[in-house]
Amino acid sequence: MHLTHLACTACAKEHDAAVPQNVCTACGKPLFAHYDLVAAAKTLTKESLRSREKSLWRYREVLPVKNAADVVTLGEGWTPLLPAPRLGAQHGLSRLFFKDEAQNPTASFKARGMTAAVSMAKQYGLKKLAAPSAGNAAGALAAYAARAGMEAHLFMPRDTPKANIIECEQMGAFVTLINGLITDCGAEVAKRKVAEGWFDVSTLKEPYRAEGKKTLGYELAEQLNWTLPDVILYPTGGGTGLVGMWKAFDEMERMGWIDSKRPRMFSVQAEGCQPIVRAFHAGEKFAAEHLGAHTRASGLRVPKAIGDFIMLDALRKSGGGALAVSDDQMISGTKEVGSAEGIFVAPEGAGCYAALKMLLAANQVQPDETVVLFNTSTGLKYLECYGG
Known about the structure:
alpha/beta; Rossmann fold; globular
């Protein structure tokens, strides 16, 4: 509604938001959306939110879609921030929460990014969208493209969880399975998109999925009465949610909603695919590709992320860090969380719990701190991991 322009996250070159854009034309890095926050704050207030719809579109003034008629929605966002008192008590934590993104349409956090990306595609008059995916993003794009009457062309590794593949097929998407990783799928999209007339909505290769994901930050602040948590643990593949939240915190501060205090942000990755973890501990600005990436948590099997430098900057500025957990820790953690709190988390969500235990053992989280773990999807999409 108050979108003014796009700007490169690396070189700051401005781009026209009135036409479809992918990455920076000067350096190839991700673009961020920028808003007239002074104008947005005139109608987007803490008071106005009290009577708004329980979806992420409650923050419409800081989302990119100009006309309400172009919003493609399935009721995404405003997921519960669930207290975890039993797990908290086990570990001496009085304020432990799960942000349960499994309660989104398409049962994952990817619905947030795709509602924004597909809505903008509708505004631009695009008809064919394409993306590589480890699974959940494909399911979300298939759903929102179907809702908008668009074609979705999806490329996934052949060993993607079966639930994701079936989901896409039943939404009428064009599904291609690739022998390889998500990077190989991305290469196939890049090779064919011009000839096929596709618009590429890959992670951080278009500006608006991050805008949908940033609403995680707005929701956290609102659900905690405008006080951010002390610690956030976020499972990181492409990392759009992590960088989106960091962007949201900046916007909220500029609108006067919060102060400059930030949560300590921790990226959680799999031992078999940990490019951000390695780069963080090596003090590097960019993350080298993790060769031979492997993990049963398909959402974490992203060997190279285009937004690596944005993630690493946020982790360091927040005073947080990056941790790698094993597949066995994730699988056993799923049952620990489920039996204690009744939440069937995805392996990625269980990975955050495993990482929290590591931080507690290292005395990096204190008993009186507010800690939020992100469960990004439902365990029902990963039955192969549990012998189903």
